[in-house]
Design goal:
With 270 residues, the chain is of the alpha/beta class. It is built from 6 helices and 16 strands. A hairpin with a 5-residue loop joins strand 6 and strand 7. Helix 1 packs parallel to helix 3.
C-alpha cells in the first residue's frame, strides 16, 4: 500500500521576507534529505510581524513566494504546501492563502482562509484578522494520485470549525493540512486537543506545521507542529524550537481505521 513520508515544518518567522525564505529553503532541503515527499510550511512563513506592514508588502510577497515554492518543489522533487501568505484582494485587503505545489513545480491547489481570527484574548492581546483579510469561500480537496490519497487544505483558526473538515471528508480527504500560527494562550489550552479531535472525527491524518516563539515585539506563538494519525495518535511533535515533525502517512492505516470504526458511515445528520 502507498506510503507518503511527510514533514510539518516549524519556524520562527520574523518581519523579514528574504531572511524567512532562506530559512524556509533550509528546512525544505533538510526534510527532503530525510525522505519527505510532502513538506508543509506554517501560516505566515514568509512574513510574521506587524499586520499593517504585512499588508503593505503583500504584493511583493505574493509575487515572490509562489515562484520560490515552485522552483524548490521541482528541484527537490516533492510536494510543497505553502501554509499561508498574503495575496492582494479587493478593497485594500488580502487573502490568507495556502497553495499546494506538486513535484513538477506547478500550483495544484489554492485555498483562501475561510474563518478569520477576531478575538479578544486579553486587554493586551486583541486580534482582528477580518480588518485586513478577505475570507475565502471555497472548500479545497486535491488528489495525490501517485499515493492514492486526497488532501484537504485549511489554515489555523479553521481548526475550530469541524463542519469544514467533515465536508472535506465527504469529498474524500484522507490527509488534512492545518498550517498555523497559534497564539501561546490558545495553543497551550487547545492545540493538541483540536488536532486530535479533527483526526478522530474524520478518520484522517492531520498535518499541522506551526510557528513558534516570539515574532517582533508583541507576538508569541505556541509551536508544537504535529502529525496525527486517524486513530488520534500523535506520531511526531516538534516541540517549541524551529524544526519539523516527520512521519509516514499510510493508506492502509486509513483503511483499517475506517473499517474498525466506521463512524463516517453511521452519520444521521448531514
Amino acid at each position: 500500500m502507498p506510503t507518503l513520508k511527510t514533514a510539518a515544518i516549524q519556524l520562527n518567522s520574523q518581519p523579514n521576507l528574504d531572511t524567512n525564505l532562506i530559512e524556509v529553503y533550509r528546512w525544505l532541503e533538510r526534510a527532503a534529505t530525510e525522505g519527505a515527499k510532502l513538506i508543509c510550511l506554517p501560516e505566515n512563513f514568509a512574513f510574521m510581524g506587524n499586520e499593517k506592514e504585512r499588508l503593505r508588502q503583500a504584493e511583493e510577497i505574493s509575487n515572490l513566494v509562489p515562484d520560490c515554492l515552485k522552483e524548490w518543489a521541482l528541484e527537490l522533487d516533492v510536494y510543497v504546501l505553502g501554509g499561508g501568505y498574503p495575496v492582494p484582494a479587493k478593497d485594500g485587503k488580502v487573502f490568507n492563502r495556502s497553495v499546494l505545489i506538486n513535484p513538477k513545480g506547478k500550483i495544484q491547489a489554492t485555498y483562501n482562509k475561510m474563518h478569520l481570527f477576531d478575538v479578544d484574548l486579553s486587554d493586551d492581546e486583541v486580534y482582528r484578522e477580518s480588518e485586513m483579510v478577505e475570507a475565502g469561500r471555497e472548500i479545497v480537496v486535491s488528489d495525490l494520485p501517485e499515493y492514492e490519497m486526497k488532501i484537504g487544505l485549511s489554515i489555523c483558526y479553521d481548526i475550530r470549525f469541524p463542519e469544514l473538515y467533515r465536508q472535506q471528508a465527504d469529498r474524500g480527504a484522507d490527509v488534512i493540512t492545518i498550517p498555523a500560527a497559534f497564539t501561546r494562550p490558545t495553543g497551550r489550552a487547545h492545540w493538541e486537543i483540536l488536532l486530535r479531535a479533527r483526526a478522530i472525527e474524520n478518520s484522517a491524518y492531520i498535518v499541522a506545521p506551526a510557528q513558534t516563539g516570539k515574532h517582533g515585539e508583541k507576538r508569541e506563538t505556541w509551536g508544537h507542529a504535529m502529525i496525527v494519525d486517524p486513530w488520534g495518535r500523535v506520531l511526531s511533535n516538534a516541540g517549541t524550537v524551529s524544526g519539523m515533525a516527520i512521519a509516514e502517512i499510510k493508506t492502509n492505516v486509513i483503511e483499517k481505521t475506517r473499517k474498525k470504526l466506521p463512524s463516517l458511515e453511521h452519520r444521521r445528520l448531514t
